[in-house]
Amino acid sequence: MKTSYNFDNINILIVDDNAEMCDTLKDILSQEGYKVYTSGTIALAREELKKKFFNIMFIDLKLPGGSGLDLLQEIKSTDNDAAVFIFTGYASLDSSIAALNEGAFTYIQKPLNMDGVKRSIKKVLKMQKLSFDNRNLLDTLKELSLKDTHTELYNYRYLVERLTSELLRAKRHSTPISVVMIDIDYFKSINDVYGHPYGDVILKDFSKCLNDFVRGNDIVTRYGGEEFVILLPDTNKESAVILAERLLD
After folding, report:
1. Would you put residue 46 in left (φ > 0), alpha (ψ -120 to 50) or beta?
2. How many other CB atoms sit within 10 Å of the CB of residue 162?
């Protein structure tokens, strides 16, 4: 699951059937600027998890309706970015090992050392921010590697990847798919007479025209040189011909 982060608003969820414990921890962490929510049962916690992403969760080991480890397992199966602190007044070596094996960030014994808890929260947030920044960087680098630098359209590599996946999707759902290939006539003459910089301007302007012309789910790519390909998902032959003729006009 891809998580949408907002580090200006840090959400923390406390899951504990001890209302006094929840209120105390909520008051302390709210003073640190975090948005803190509480749930007294696993069922209520599940409802909160449907509403928003929580950067950090404090989950009691023993809860009405099940173990905190059950909830931990559910969380990690759907959102591995969330950091879970398992805390309990009945600590044991077995339960601590089980919590860490299930993906808990840490295992804390009650009563809580709040200075230590605050340090752990800041450590988690730094790790999440670093992971988020690295992921964004990788996404940006991947996006750049799939874009043509002159026209800012997707390149041949992207076309091959996307065409493969769209063909599989069309086959699986028995839907049509079409491809339109476009070539600019006499482009070599433009470069010869006016120079390559002017040819680049033509390519950029033409690419913008193509992007403005197609539908939202159509994919425009630069095949190479003055050749372009438009991938048309959910489009039959007749509709593709109509689009091509309109484009020629």
Report:
1. alpha
2. 16
For 179-229, write each residue's pLDDT tens digit: 999 999 999 998 899 999 999 999 999 999 999 989 888 999 999 899 999
User: Of the listed 32, 48, 226, 227, which one is catalytic?
Assistant: 226
Sheet with strand 227-233: strands edge to edge: 177-183, 227-233, 219-224
Q: Is 238 one of the annotated active-site residues of the chain?
A: no
User: What gap in Å lies between CA 237 and CA 203, rounded to an integer?
Assistant: 27
Does the CA dihedral 128-131-135-137 come out positive or negative? positive
For the cut 80, the answer to whether the pLDDT of residue 143 exceeds it is: no
Q: And the tokens for 196? A: 């390559």
**What does the pLDDT look like over 19-64, one tens digit per residue?**
999 999 999 999 999 999 999 999 999 999 999 889 999 999 999 8
Helical pair 42-51 and 68-78, crossing angle rounded to 10 deg: 20
Closest CA to 99 of 58, 130, 47: 58
pLDDT at 134: 84
pLDDT tops 50 at residue 2: no
Residue 40 DSSP label? S
Q: How far is CA 148 from CA 23, 144, 153, 216, in A?
A: 55, 8, 5, 20
User: Is the omega angle on the peptide bond into residue 111 within 30 degrees of 0, that is, cis?
Assistant: yes
For every residue of 72-97, DSSP letters joined together read HHHHHHH-TTSEEEEEESS--HHHHH
